[in-house]
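Summary for the steering committee. One of the milestones for this cycle was to obtain a three-dimensional model of the protein with zinc ion bound, which we needed before selecting residues for the alanine scan. The sequence and ligand used are listed below.
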Amino acid sequence: MLKIDLHIHSILSGHAYGTIYEIMKYAKSKGFEMIAITDHGPGGSALTSRSHFMMGSRAPKDYEGMRVLWGCEANIIDGDGNIDLDEFAIKQVNFLIVGLHTETVYKDLGKDKNTEAIIKCFNKYPIHCFSHPATLYYDYDVEKACQAACDNDILLEINLTNLVRLERGSRKMNVDNFKKIVDVAKKNNKKILVNSDAHFLHEIGDDTVLGRFRDKLGLDDSMIINNFPEELNEFIKKKNDQKV
Ligand SMILES: [Zn+2]
Ligand SMILES: [Zn+2]
């Protein structure tokens, strides 16, 4: 069980089922140190709006001693790498995840241009984490995208929900792409963030699938930043301080 899980969806994502208070209560009962509520950006959910993310300054910062981050899993919306949150809303969010998703306004531009869109995005926003780099909702060069993340000090994610999907034989998942995430992180001397991407309470922090893939992926505990809370907190703060 993780003690830090920074990718959790609430009922506001439209296809997730816990309220923010149920999520906090559940995570606290499981002994979590820190969680992030990261609902889909306004371009990926009919239920989130810019004003939801603007509530960051008023949102709970902790729950009975467990740190709570007001996050967003924003969507890349075009070939220039723009995302569905403006600069002012980004400032109100204290954990920013970005990824490419279907059911958004993004139009498939083909492998090269999709890769370019990701790189452009990473070069211009204060992003904490690249969500599910191995999940190709649109085709892109996983190595180049992960390298751009490392170049911009953006954490690569091992997404537990998508590891489960890989294990179940999803055609969108390929173990080699997961391996590429670990290889690029190693090459750049970067740690990896492990997140559940929970949409149900019972998925929060459940990392049992990781045990079955750890060796295959070449991932050891010293590489997982969830095991180093101080370093992770410092990283989050440093990124947030970059926002002008
Ligand atoms: Zn996602
Ligand atoms: Zn997600």
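Key point for the committee: The radius of gyration is 16 Å.
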